[in-house]
């Protein structure tokens, strides 16, 4: 029920505060009761919360009903005497300005993080659609807004690698080389922030494999990255499958066969691994 939910999420202090608030509201209503119907409606919330969970409207009524009761109780109270207005001191004005500035700063920071997330989602979608040039520009903006998020660097690294291959196909060698450097640099930043993140290691291996068409020397570092990933995730069949393919392309057929056999031990119904293993064995 709702009370156990409070205990599980906020602990004894949270549940104790919640029950203390309920007790105070009950005591106040008995002392200043103006509408029994209003109190009965509020008490029904306590019963429904005991047998289930509250939704947003119920949670609002939990606080609004006591507020209504306070307003009704004050209607019969004698009017208070008008008080003299006390001028605001310079110190109070300074504190107010500082508080407002702090609030505005935090709101601005939060809005930057939010917009960076929006840009990342857009760039990720463009990458999946193969629109790498737009994805690259969008993800660069996301990184500029929040450079501490490794996921943005990782996604930007992939779009940069894809653009590098496209630029090389159009014989724009200088642009391709620059994009290769950007891709590796962004991937380095992601792995520096989160060096044991398996998805970032996978992306790094994908980048090397993607750039293999430009320079065969990228295949060896792809092997090292996959070996590192296999140590972190020794039961991930897909990593071993990719590792087997890299071994094969490096000409290490025996290691490729052993790795693909290990892949099938981890996931016997892995059809791609079965097909790759059969093809390699036929060649042997």
TrEMBL record:
It holds the Pfam family TPR_1. The chain crosses the membrane at residues 6-28, 40-73, 93-115. The keyword Membrane applies. SUPFAM superfamilies: TPR-like. It comes from Candidatus Shapirobacteria bacterium CG10_big_fil_rev_8_21_14_0_10_40_9. Gene3D superfamilies: Tetratricopeptide repeat domain. GO terms for biological process: receptor-mediated virion attachment to host cell. The keyword Membrane applies. TPR repeats lie at residues 116-149, 237-270. InterPro entries: TPR-like_helical_dom_sf, TPR_rpt, Ycf3. One of its GO terms (cellular component) is cell outer membrane. PANTHER family: TETRATRICOPEPTIDE REPEAT PROTEIN 6, UDP-N-ACETYLGLUCOSAMINE--PEPTIDE N-ACETYLGLUCOSAMINYLTRANSFERASE SPINDLY-RELATED. Keywords: Membrane, Repeat, TPR repeat, Transmembrane, Transmembrane helix. This is Uncharacterized protein.
């Amino acid at each position: 029920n709702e009370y156990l939910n409070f205990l599980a999420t906020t602990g004894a202090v949270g549940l104790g505060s919640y029950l203390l608030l309920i007790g105070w509201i009950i005591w106040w209503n008995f002392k200043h009761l103006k509408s029994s119907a209003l109190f009965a409606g509020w008490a029904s919330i306590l019963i429904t919360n005991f047998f289930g969970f509250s939704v947003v409207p119920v949670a609002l009524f939990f606080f609004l009903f006591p507020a209504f009761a306070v307003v009704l109780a004050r209607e019969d109270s004698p009017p208070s005497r008008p008080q003299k207005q006390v001028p605001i001191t310079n110190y109070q004005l300074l504190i107010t300005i500082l508080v407002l500035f702090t609030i505005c700063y935090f709101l601005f920071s939060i809005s930057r993080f939010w917009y960076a997330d929006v840009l990342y989602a857009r760039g990720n979608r463009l990458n999946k659609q193969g629109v790498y040039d737009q994805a690259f520009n969008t993800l660069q903006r996301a990184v500029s807004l929040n450079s501490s998020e490794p996921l943005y660097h990782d996604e930007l690294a992939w779009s940069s690698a894809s653009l590098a291959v496209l630029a090389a196909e159009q014989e724009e060698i200088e642009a391709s080389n620059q994009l290769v450097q950007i891709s590796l640099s962004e991937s380095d930043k992601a792995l520096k922030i989160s060096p044991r993140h398996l998805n970032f290691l996978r992306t790094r291996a994908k980048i090397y494999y993607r750039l293999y068409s430009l320079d065969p020397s990228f295949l060896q570092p792809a092997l090292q990255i996959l070996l590192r990933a296999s140590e972190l995730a020794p039961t991930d069949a897909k990593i071993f499958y990719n590792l087997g393919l890299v071994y094969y392309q490096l000409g290490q057929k025996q290691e490729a066969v052993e790795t693909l056999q290990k892949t099938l031990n981890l996931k016997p119904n892995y059809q791609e691994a079965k097909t790759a293993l059969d093809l390699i064995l036929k060649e042997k």
